[in-house]
Amino acid sequence: MPGSDQGRPGPHAHPKIDEETLIMPQTMTDQEWEAQNGSLSPGEATALGLCWCCQGRKVLYTAFGGVQRTVPCPEKCNNGKAGR
Fold first, then answer.
1. What's the pLDDT score for residue 22?
2. What is the residue-wise DSSP string for 15-56?
3. Is 56 exposed, middle or buried (0-12, 13-18, 19+ CB in 10 A)?
4. Which residues pair with 61 in a beta bridge?
5. C-beta separation of 63 from 32 below 8 A
6. Which of 21, 24, 43, 82 has the smallest number of Cβ neighbours within 10 A?
7. pLDDT for the residue 3
8. pTM reported for the whole predicted model
9. CA–CA separation, 48 and 15 (whole Å)
10. Which residue has the higher pLDDT, 81 or 52?
11. Quick one: pLDDT at residue 13?
12. Digit-coded pLDDT (tens) for 21-72
């Protein structure tokens, strides 16, 4: 039907979130996104009882070309805690 908005999202439609890779609508620069990984050295994180890799966050933040993702900690840490 000409002029019909049928099939188009309404004015309050939310941006699509890719549940598999957890891509969120971009609100930060790639540099700001990756800065969420923290600045502790592996030794400092371990001394605080945190996973040396994710620093207690359970995920790592990565971005390239405006595509921002979170990925599970590759160390299979104990919910962000040091040790296994």
1. 58
2. PP-BTTTTB----S-HHHHHHTT----HHHHHHTTB-TTTTT
3. middle
4. 70
5. no
6. 43
7. 55
8. 0.60
9. 38
10. 52
11. 47
12. 555 555 889 999 999 999 999 999 999 999 999 999 999 999 998 899 999 9
How many Cα neighbours within 13 Å face the side chain of 70? 16
Amino acid at the residue 46: T
Q: Which residues pair with 23 in a beta bridge?
A: 18
C-alpha span between 1 and 79 (Å, rounded): 53
Say how far apart CA 74 and CA 42 lie, in whole Å: 14
Structure tokens at 4: 């019909």
Among 43, 28, 46, which Cα is nearest to 83's?
A: 46
- Per the rule left: phi > 0, alpha: psi between -120 and 50, beta: everything else, 17 is beta
The span from the CA of 40 to the CA of 55, in Å, is 7
- Evaluate the CA torsion angle 13, 15, 20, 22 in order and state its sign: negative
